[in-house]
Structure formats: structure tokens, C-alpha cells
Write a structure and sequence with these properties.
about 270 residues, mainly alpha, 9 helices, about 85% helix, globular
Length: about 270
């Protein structure tokens, strides 16, 4: 019975929060793209600095080890970004070569050589894999926390699952904005973040069977997830917002950044 309750609670919290975030946020994305990017940056930074990192540092883990984990995570996601960009650049160059080869044959076959000018889409921006990796680690940790609550008391488990669902909604709104901006496909973004959310159930299962062994590692899961959110916010989103804008647009940009921070901070506080 406890295991079934853990699975229901973790799936509801992990995937339900994604779908609720999609209902609230995706309708606004097409019309307010720049505003949603600001909100996403604020939500990701607030999730890391106001929720995950404080929880990690309140544990028995040493500050030196946790900061080393944070630094290592930032370097890892930087390298992951580089690999993603290199892979995309390789594919893009191959597509250009294939297109040029095909046009050369066409021109030769028709006996003329017109100049062809093509505007290539440089493809999706970086940051998507870092968000998904961070989401998966974060979800795994949430699953362990929900499992521990259910194993202590059934009512406490329900409250914990609802709390995780509530505080994940504004964070997932930011995730979906990032994924939608990197892939330009809202359905694919929703599927990817939902799949990352299902890792909550995996964390619940592992927590049910190995709770005592994993408790000491929870702070490191929280810091690893934080490093991905900080990296995406500072390396991918904030640079896109650093543009010369009118005073009104700048004020709106800052306001939406603060809204993202405020939402996560408020909901996390209520959840606790």
C-alpha cells in the first residue's frame, strides 16, 4: 500500500506539475516571448538559490564539498553545452555541403549557373540538455523526499507530494520556456520535461528500497541540480536579455525577472 501511494504521489507531483505549468505558461509564450525568457531566468535562479542550495547547506554535508560539487556541475554543463554546439555545427556544415552539391548538379544538368542565396536557420540554441539533466536530478531527489515522507506517515506523504507539485509549477514554467526556445517545438518541449518529471517516480522507488543508504547523498543531488539551473540562467537566458531596449521595455524585462524570482520564492515558502 505504501509503495502504491509513493508511486501515485511521485507521478502526480513530477508529471502533474509539468502539465499544470504548460497550461499556465505556454499560452503566454507566443505573445510574450521576451517576458517569458525573463520569467524563466528568474525562476531558474530562484529555484537554485532560494530553494535547492539552502536545503543542501542545511544538511550535515560539508560546505567545501558542496561548493566543489557546484563548481564541478557548472564546468560539466559548460562542456555539455560545447559538445551540443559542436555536434549541431557539424550537422549544419554537412547539410550546407549536401545542399551545395545538389545545386551544383542541378545547375550542370540545366546548362546554366545561377547564383543561389540561402538563408539557413542556425538551429536551436544551447541550454536544453542542461535543463533536462538538472530536472532529472532534481526530480530524483524530490522522489526520495516524497518516499521518505510516505514511509514516515501517509498523511505527511500526501502533503509532501502536494508541496513538491506546488513549488515545481513556476520552475517548470521556466523549463518549458527554455526548451521551447531551444527547439522551437512546444510539443517536444512538453514531452521532454514530462519525461524528466517521471524520474520523480524512479526516485520514489529507489527511496522506498534504499532510503537509509541515500539520505546522505541528497544534498549532492540538490547541488547538482542547482548547478544546471544557474548555468542555463546565466549562460543562455541572461545574455539574450542583455539588449539595448527602451526604458519601458527594460522596466518590463526587470519586472518579469522579479516575478519569476518572486513566484518560486513564494510558492517554496508556502510549500515548506
Amino acid at each position: 500500500m505504501t509503495l502504491i501511494a509513493i508511486l501515485i504521489g511521485t507521478i502526480a507531483a513530477g508529471v502533474g506539475s509539468v502539465w499544470l505549468a504548460a497550461l499556465l505558461g505556454m499560452a503566454m509564450l507566443a505573445r510574450y516571448t521576451q517576458h517569458m525568457l525573463s520569467l524563466a531566468a528568474g525562476a531558474l535562479m530562484a529555484t537554485a538559490f532560494m530553494h535547492l542550495l539552502p536545503e543542501a547547506f542545511e544538511s550535515e554535508a560539508g560546505a567545501h564539498e558542496l561548493f566543489a560539487m557546484l563548481l564541478g556541475g557548472l564546468v560539466f554543463f559548460f562542456l555539455l553545452d560545447k559538445a551540443e554546439l559542436w555536434h549541431h555545427g557539424h550537422e549544419h556544415n554537412q547539410d550546407e555541403a549536401d545542399a551545395a552539391h545538389a545545386h551544383g548538379h542541378a545547375a550542370h544538368g540545366h546548362g546554366h549557373g545561377h547564383a543561389h542565396h540561402h538563408h539557413h536557420d542556425h538551429g536551436p540554441r544551447s541550454g536544453g540538455w542542461a535543463v533536462l539533466a538538472g530536472d532529472s536530478v532534481h526530480a530524483f531527489g524530490d522522489g526520495i523526499l516524497i518516499a521518505s515522507a510516505f514511509m514516515a506517515d501517509m498523511r505527511l506523504g500526501v502533503v509532501a507530494a502536494l508541496a513538491v507539485l506546488a513549488h515545481e509549477v513556476p520552475h517548470h514554467m521556466g523549463d518549458l520556456v527554455v526548451l521551447r526556445h531551444t527547439s522551437r517545438n512546444s510539443r517536444a518541449a512538453l514531452v521532454k520535461v514530462s519525461l524528466a518529471g517521471t524520474v520523480t517516480a524512479l526516485g520514489g522507488l529507489v527511496g522506498y528500497f534504499m532510503l537509509n543508504q541515500l539520505q546522505d547523498y541528497l544534498p549532492y543531488f540538490l547541488v547538482a541540480a542547482s548547478s544546471s539551473f544557474v548555468y542555463v540562467a546565466l549562460a543562455d537566458l541572461i545574455p539574450q536579455l542583455q539588449k539595448r531596449l527602451s526604458l519601458a521595455a527594460t522596466v518590463a524585462q526587470i519586472a518579469w525577472l522579479l516575478v519569476g524570482i518572486g513566484l518560486v520564492t513564494l510558492v517554496s515558502g508556502l510549500a515548506h
